[in-house]
Amino acid sequence: MYFSDVPERTSKLLSELKTWCDTNRVKQVELARMLGVTPQGVTEWFKGRNQPTGEQVLAMLEILNKKSRGRSTRATGSSR
User: What is the C-alpha separation between 2 and 21, in angstroms, rounded?
Assistant: First the structure.
């Protein structure tokens, strides 16, 4: 991966995360709580006005990874 790929890959990750939220009926305020950010921060990411930090990207990948293993991750961050 090259640094020039980062914005494109981040955009794709955010799109996947938004789809996950829509599918699982997770509100942005819940997602923000799971990621340790403000709801406004999540809105800024989804609108493309701001980019998440590396740590936040890793947390997003963790959420999506749990999803792919068939687990549900809700506001508590627990898996069931």
Answer: 28
DSSP lists the bridge partners of residue 73 as: 79
- Comparing C-alpha atoms, which of 10, 1, 4 is closest to residue 54? 10
Question: What DSSP designation does 79 have?
Answer: B
Residue 16 and residue 12: Cα distance in Å, rounded?
6
42 phi/psi in degrees, rounded to 5: -60, -45
- 17-33 pLDDT, tens digit per residue, is 999 999 999 999 999 99
pTM beyond cutoff 0.85: no
The domains of the chain, with CATH numbers, are 3-68 (1.10.260.40)
Q: Which residue has the tokens 């090259």?
A: 2
Residue count (the chain): 80
